[in-house]
Amino acid sequence: MVQVMELPRNKTTAQEVLSELVIPAVPGEYYAYHSEFTEDKPLYVLMKCKANKARSIATAEELGHEANLLFLFDSSVQAQVCAIKLAQASGLLGDYVSGDLFGETWIAPAKITAEDFYDLRSRKDVAGMVKTCETACSRREVSLALCPNLVVAMMTDGGKYGLFLVKELTPSSIRIDACHILL
Question: E strands along the chain, which residues?
Answer without folding.
Answer: 30-38, 43-45, 54-55, 67-73, 79-83, 105-109, 143-146, 151-156, 160-169, 173-182
